[in-house]
Amino acid sequence: MDLTGLLALAVTGLVRGGLYALMALGLALVFGVMNIAHFAHGEIYAIGAYAAYFAYAVFGFSPILAIVAAGITSFVAGMLIEKGLFYPLRKGSKGDWLMNSFLVTVGLSFVLKNGAQAIWGAQFRGISQYWEDSIRILPGVSLAYDRAIAFVISIAAIVIFWLILRRTEFGRAMRAVSQNETGALLVGIDLDRIQSITFALSSMLAGLAGAAMLSILPAYPSMGMTPNNKSWFVVMLVGLGNVGGSIVGGFMVGILETVTYYFLGGGWQDVVSLSVLILILLFKPSGLFGTTEVKGRLER
Amino acid sequence: MLEVRDIEARYGHLQVLWGISLHVAQGEFVTLVGPNGAGKTTTLRTIAGLIKPMAGEVEFMGKPIGGLPANRISQMGLSFVTEDLDLFEQMSVRENLLLGAYGIRDKDKLASSMDFVLDLFPRLAERQKQLAGTLSGGERKMLALARGLVSDPKVLLVDEPSLGLAPLLVESVFEALQALHQKGVTILLVEQNVGTALQMTERSYVLEQGRIVLQGAGAELLQDEHVKSAYLGI
Amino acid sequence: MNKLERILTIGAKNSVLAKLRSWGIPPANVAVLVVLILAPLVIRDQYILHLMVVSLLFGAQTIVFDFTTGFINIVNFGFAAFVGLGGYTSALLVTGLGLSPWLGMLGGVITAGMLGFLTGVLTLRLRGIYAAVMTWFLGLALMALTAVEVDLTRGHWGLNVPLLASAGSKPTYYYVLLAMMVVIYFVLRVVIHSNIGLAFRAIGQDIEAAQSSGVNPTKYRVLNFTLACAFAGLLGGFYAHFVGVLTPDVMSTDKTVEVLALSYIGGRGTLWGGVLASFIFIPLFEYLKSLMELRLVIYGLLLIAVMLAFPDGLVGLLRRTVALIRKTRQERKVSQ
Fold first, then answer.
1. Which residue of C75, C123, C140 to mutate against A (max A Cβ within 10 Å)?
2. Is the pLDDT of residue A293 over 50?
3. What integer best gives the mean pLDDT of chain B?
4. Are the beta carbons of B43 and B207 closer than 8 angstroms?
5. Mean per-residue pLDDT for C292-317?
6. Residues C123, C74: contact at Cβ < 8 Å?
7. Domains in chain C, number
8. Which letter, b or e, does each residue of B27-54 get, where b requires 16 or more Cβ atoms within 10 Å of its Cβ?
9. What backbone phi and psi angles, to 5 degrees, belong to B65?
10. ipTM
């Protein structure tokens, strides 16, 4: 393969990786801070996509505003879901929290996916493009504006989020809750509030991804399945709850997938990547970067 | 400052506290001693809000706090240093301390608190960037104490700080506590090391099987026959 | 009636019920079975019969699903893939080798059982959620494999499968499936009530404690998976020859979730709770056509409700109601 081809592949891989990293980040966050195996993450992505569709194609928002609106919608949706589902589950649940919360998200996913179908029907709600044209990165390698902006949004969201996590008191509080809930209580952190905002943030990240990708992946009720599977794949690969690892992992998987797709085609790509994951789970269940801590409960 | 009246508490399905009453006045250094499993930790956890009392009242600075969540009680000025320490293992010493001051808006107050605490524990000052999980046993205890102190609490609850420490370190921990007491911090200490506890502090309560069986000044209790035979091996 | 006759008749009634009870068969189950056996003789409407076959199919799947979920406490999130594997195996054996559908279904049992054995081994070192995710990805991988091997399976084009009986002969399907479900239920129930079942529950609740009591988690996990997946394969074989066409979508996670939802709504750990739920909800949604679209939404909501508030599901509700009735009856007797 010549250099141009290689570069084109790299660019595609990076763009895809950015999206995967954004999605996986949201999932890892929920796992790490709330200890919830979130099966409905893809449906939150879909909420973002639908919101952007309605904002842009129906209400005539500008592209940026539509994406922002989608982010806000997903944030609010996440907040409502947390208060309505996970808060009562936390207060009342007995027994295996991980499995119980997982099954609740399975139910949620079913409700959202089929609810969207019932309300808006199965047809695709897509847009042809947000912005016209492409930018020419190099001779022979051009990238559609839509994809470029999607990539920029991903990176920006990831970076901003990372800064919040590492440098702000709120981010510290989130990390504290993920490492030791009792300790967090003892220093005066309101667990419920942190959980709500964490889930809302995770939802916002997923919603932004869905909105940014609208011209590439149109909105339809079961659109969330693939983003969900991919996010889970990344998170399991690097180790549940590993937030930093999920970003790196997202890029890794995005690039690897692009390469495999190029050489093997779509059908086999899935088989191969899933088989790889199964092998990794066999030999190192805690994932590539996984360590046994994060939250001791992960080992149970 | 701290008033506990007839509290009853459960640990899981087992009732552990059968009507505990104690009080700690401002500036006092009081200990709670007793055998393993007597309910000392449960008492502290109930006061701090980690456990909800089944009956009885807890008052902090005149306000009822029984049943309030632990984070609220912490915000009111009660710091609890647990036996497990509950440090944030993957965060640095500095970050743990910053979290100890969670909610403090006043930048100057925060700075002076941090300075105070790092002065008190110079070992921690040296290791500010180090991850809590990599500290030695003694350093971890110091960090836990420091984190409890950085919020300038009105009352400090400490659960078995000497546990698992080499004798030299035990001494320095107790010295630190004494220093705090001199500074005017109100302390309620749970301690297995009965002899030292009774010598160090003004007043003590002896807890056995979920009930207060003795209370009084340290010196008195040291002379008490039951204490001598049960705890001091005399 | 004189005293002697009275004693004799009461004695007779007691002895039938008593005999049943002594064999460990609750009379209620027998009653239900009798109703199920007699139903097609009374009902002529082909459409209703079809519904009943579908209900039985879901019900049978929930029994098998619950055998793993409710007892060794692992959610087989790739369940539909095992069902699908049985279906495709049977279909391919029949179309490719010309075997009779019965042999085909046997083939389905074997392949699904073998994969179940493998899955049990693969998930050995994994706990709870990890094991569930492993089975989930296994199911996804199997589905992807089925879709990509178009030469063999015709992938998403669909594989036509010879039917078991002529399309109009619904009662035949019904009785075949009923027989299957009864056998499955009976076998699984016997296992559950045996020492093996005890071992299952032990490793389901606390794997460490079980190990230190001498229970070998490996042996029992693998046994459970193999048996459950083998039966899943059998049902898949039936499905193939009932519906007449197979696509990789039969292995999708959505299909697993439907079975999972019915199983939990019925009552986890009861084996038959899902059958009850199936017979309630599947006809219900058919009759309330307007709700049909919302069917899956309602499954999801009910699943959430079960997780949040009704962990024992319908069976739990039923038992509590019965207990409440008995208690009020007793209280009334006492106060009289």
1. C140
2. no
3. 89
4. yes
5. 88
6. yes
7. 1
8. ebbbbbbbeeebbbbbbbbbbbbbbebe
9. -120, 0
10. 0.91
Q: Would C86 be classed as within a structural domain?
A: yes
Confidence of residue A127 (pLDDT cuts 50, 70, 90): confident
| Separation in Å, CA C185 to CA C59, C66, C273 | 10, 11, 12
Domain holding C254, by residue range, is: 45-335
pTM of the model: 0.88
Return left, alpha or beta for B184; rule: phi > 0 is left, psi -120 to 50 is alpha, else beta. left
- List all residues 6 or more positions away from C263 whose beta carbon is below 8 Å from its beta carbon: C62, C65, C66, C69, C70, C273, C274, C277
Query: Looking at residue A47, which CATH number applies to its domain?
Result: 1.10.3470
| Residues of the domain holding A142 | 3-299
pLDDT at B231 over 50: yes
Number of structural domains chain A divides into: 1
Average pLDDT, chain C: 86
Domain for residue C286, yes or no?
A: yes
For tokens 């010309």, what's the residue? C98
Kindly report, residue by residue over A209-248, the tens digit of the pLDDT.
999 999 888 999 999 998 999 999 999 888 887 888 899 9
| CA–CA distances in Å: residue B122 to residues A17, B116, B126, B128, B143 | 45, 10, 6, 10, 11
**Binning pLDDT at 50, 70 and 90, where does residue A298 land?**
very low
- For an interface test with C, the pick among A93, A106, A268 (most C C-beta atoms closer than 10 Å) comes out as A106
Environment class of A249 (CB within 10 Å of its CB; exposed 0-12, middle 13-18, buried 19+) = buried
CB B155 within 8 A of CB B58: no
Quick check: A129 and A144 in contact, CB under 8 A? yes
Instruction: Report residue C284's pLDDT band, with 50, 70 and 90 as the boundaries.
Output: confident
pLDDT reading at C189 higher than 80: yes
Residue in this structure with the two tokens 């490719």, named with its chain if needed: C96
The reply to whether residue C311 touches residue A95, judged by beta carbons under 8 angstroms, is yes
Q: Are strands B203-208 and B29-33 parallel, antiparallel or unpaired?
A: parallel
- The answer to whether residue C85 is domain-embedded is yes
* Beta strands at C159-160 and B78-81: parallel, antiparallel or unpaired: unpaired
CATH of the domain spanning B1-68+161-234, picked from 3.40.50.360, 3.40.50.300, 3.40.190.10, 3.30.70.1450:
3.40.50.300
Of the ranges A240-244, B46-50, C200-204, the best mean pLDDT one: B46-50
Token pair for B106: 């006043």
- A180, A182, A187 ranked by CB distance to B102: nearest: A187
User: Does the residue C107 lie in any domain?
Assistant: yes
Name every chain A residue with its beta carbon within 8 A of the beta carbon of B150. none
| pLDDT attached to residue A294 | 37
Contacts of C140 in chain A (CB under 8 A): 229, 270, 274
DSSP A139: T
Distance from CA of A284 to the nearest CA of B (A): 21
- Beta bridge mates, B33: B206
Q: Where in chain B is the domain with CATH 3.40.50.300?
A: 1-68+161-234
